[in-house]
Amino acid sequence: MLMAGKGFLGFLCPDLWQRGIQDIDLDKLKSRGIGALIFDIDNTLAKWGESEISRDIIGWIERAKLKGFRMCILSNNLSSRVEAISKRLGIPAVRKGIKPFRYAFNRAIAVMASDPKHTAVVGDQVFTDILGGNLCGMYTILVAPISRHEFITTRLVRVLEKLTLRYLLARGMIAPKDIETRRPLEMAGAGSCDGHDS
């Protein structure tokens, strides 16, 4: 959601920072009226280019289902890997999303029969997941990338992302502890940090 009075920069600020999906408090989301979740795949649900999903994430997804959350995967990829992960988790997927354009997120919302006000976006990238979610007026959750291994263009975007986050920090739009959550999970170990709710 756009931070009031912050202009375009507000679209780059997540509402919540978390180490990983499994650290997101489902009950707190429910209390905010969130009933639908959109997930990125690469380095959010699984490592880049891989289909294996950790037991922690699978368990979290199953708990979300039991609590009545509707879920959908939104990926820019076209590969059969998207379908494989969709089937593994038992949730629908929208391929060729072209994030951060609103059309991509609206497709996922339609699949879940939800609306922006009651939907949250969970992803590891500011310029795709967070920007797109905020442009649509959704609740946005930024998680740390699972791995440092990424597509070459993503690595280049990470440089811009890092500079942008430093600028937002200097402007007082994000907190120092938020930046600490950005270390890839494979480097940070199993420990989690408390998220910052904007």
Give the SSE layout:
Layout: E1 16-18, H1 26-31, E2 36-39, H2 55-66, E3 70-74, H3 80-89, E4 93-94, H4 102-112, E5 119-123, H5 126-135, E6 139-143, H6 152-170, H7 176-180, H8 185-188
Parallel strand pairs: 1-6, 2-3, 2-5, 3-4, 5-6
Please provide a written account of the structure.
- With 198 residues, this protein is α/β, with parallel strands linked by helices.
- It has one domain (7-188): HAD superfamily/HAD-like (Rossmann fold).
- The protein has helices at residues 26-31, 55-66, 80-89, 102-112, 126-135, 152-170, 176-180, 185-188, and strands spanning 16-18, 36-39, 70-74, 93-94, 119-123, 139-143.
Notable characteristics:
198 residues; alpha/beta; Rossmann fold; 6-stranded parallel beta sheet; 6 strands; disordered C terminus
Helix content: 25-40%
What is the topology, as strand order, of the major beta sheet? 1-6-5-2-3-4
The CATH H-level superfamily is HAD superfamily/HAD-like
The number of domains: 1
| Intertermini distance | 10 Å
CATH architecture annotation name = 3-Layer(aba) Sandwich
Coarse shape? globular
Can you write the helix and strand succession as a string?
EHEHEHEHEHEHHH
The CATH class is identified as Alpha Beta
Number of helices: 8
Largest sheet report: 6 strands, parallel
Poorly predicted residue ranges: 187-198
Percent range for β-strand residues? 5-15%
Count all strands and give the number.
Answer: 6
